[in-house]
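SAMPLE LOG
Freezer: B-3
Tube label: C17
Construct: single chain, 233 aa
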Amino acid sequence: MTDDLLQLTPSGLYCAAGDFYIDPWQPVDHAVITHAHADHARPGSQRYLTTPTGAQVLAPRIDEGASIRTLPYGERLSLQDVTLSLHPAGHLLGSAQVRVERGGEVWVVSGDYKAEQDQTCEPFEPVRCHTFITESTFGLPIYRWQPQAEVFAEINDWWRANQGAGRTSVLYAYALGKAQRLLAGVDSTIGPILVHGAVLPFVQRYRDAGINQPDVLYANAEHARTHRGRARW
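STRUCTURE (predicted):
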């Protein structure tokens, strides 16, 4: 990686020309955040920049009262010698790729991204650039994903079968992003849906952003007893 636009430092990926970090690992003065998952958005920084919808799910995960500035997708912001813009990454609500331009040279940092569209976040947008810094958690060719419709059909069939046998169906998912994607995709008419307390506040924040989320119940002991054998967690 050349050092003229972005540098890898002990605190994370740094743009000296604009004096900001992208998804820093340590507290810094200026943090540009691709999305609100904890491995990309850490508390302790002085100022954060993200998308308007990203700010809604970022705020509960950083220090109360921290400064969050928002930049709508596609709008350009001048930071000293560079121009910065954010573009949809398709990962979760408000997730963004970071485009950095200086003197006609364009670099893009993807953050986590997904090319397949789903109803819970803004769709991925390809961005032309000279240098692309990509996440590659599942980049190996061994990973082959089924279409979403097939996955949700399998979940619904499994849920109905469990109901018929008097078993409660339990699914594990990240509290932010994956859980809301599951909730939007399953057939909520099958039965009541109970969610963990870590999931519940983000369900409402997705609703506030206009994302469809079914009615859910907090998975406390009372609700678990009442709906045992019918519910999906």
